[in-house]
Amino acid sequence: MNTIFTRISCRKYLEKEVEDEKIKLLLKAAMAAPSAGNQQPWEFYVIKNKEIIYQLSQCSQYENYLKNAPLAIVPIYRKEGLRFKDYAHIDMSICLENMWLEATELGLGCVWLGIAPIKERMATVNQIINLPDHLETFAIMAIGYPAEERKQQDRFEENRIHYIK
Q1: pTM above 0.90, yes or no
Q2: Bond into 117 cis (ω within 30)
Q3: What are the b/e assignments for 17-55, b being 16+ CB within 10 Å?
Q4: Radius of gyration from C-alpha coordinates of the chain
Q5: In order of start, what are the domains of the chain with their CATH numbers?
Q6: Which of 44, 74, 106, 132 gives a 20 to 30 Å CA spacing to 30?
Q7: Number of neighbouring beta carbons within 10 Å of residue 94
Q8: Neighbouring-strand partners of residue 47
Q9: pLDDT digit string (tens) for 65-118?
Q10: Cα(105)–Cα(165) distance, rounded to whole angstroms?
Q11: How confident is the model at residue 1 (pLDDT cuts 50, 70, 90)?
């Protein structure tokens, strides 16, 4: 799977809308992720509204890359009814990695903007998207067609591998 070695964090986007068919494929990839006890804690808010995207870009100094993205997906998780509640963030992380890899495969660029576990950021996003109390914001994915091309840096370091025989 070469996509793992070509995925980058894209922070500059063309002014081109992401097609609904591609959005559906991103969400299908996300929901194909494994989760603890198959609890599938995720739900997704798909945001194309430029004003809402701009408001989300102001959540912290790290979300600024979002303001020029044509699409934001806010993955959220249920706080109730989970068998393995302590694993919800791990489940969400796996699902977002699937989404990121699918975005790369579709010729899209994206970047994962961290929201959880910082309570102030979570509360701000919850308020902007009017999230019901039983749901919690996990992250924001800024998505669009990349306005630049870069290669992924080689992060392989042999000295970090330890064999026990």
Answers
A1: yes
A2: yes
A3: ebeeebbebbbebbeebebbeebbbbebbbbeeeeebeb
A4: 16
A5: 16-145 (3.40.109.10)
A6: 132
A7: 18
A8: 72
A9: 898 999 999 999 999 999 999 999 999 999 999 999 999 999 999 999 999 999
A10: 38
A11: low
Token pair recorded at residue 21: 């068919």
Q: How many residues does the chain have?
A: 165
CB 79 within 8 A of CB 48: no
Nearest alpha carbon to residue 18 among 70, 96, 75, 54: 70
Which residue has 């991103």 as its token pair? Answer: 26
The encoded tokens of residue 111 equal 């970047």
Token pair, residue 46, equals 């798909």
Q: What tokens does 26 get? A: 């991103």
Instruction: Quote the tokens at residue 159.
Output: 């000295």
- Return the H-helix or E-strand segment holding 23: helix 20-31
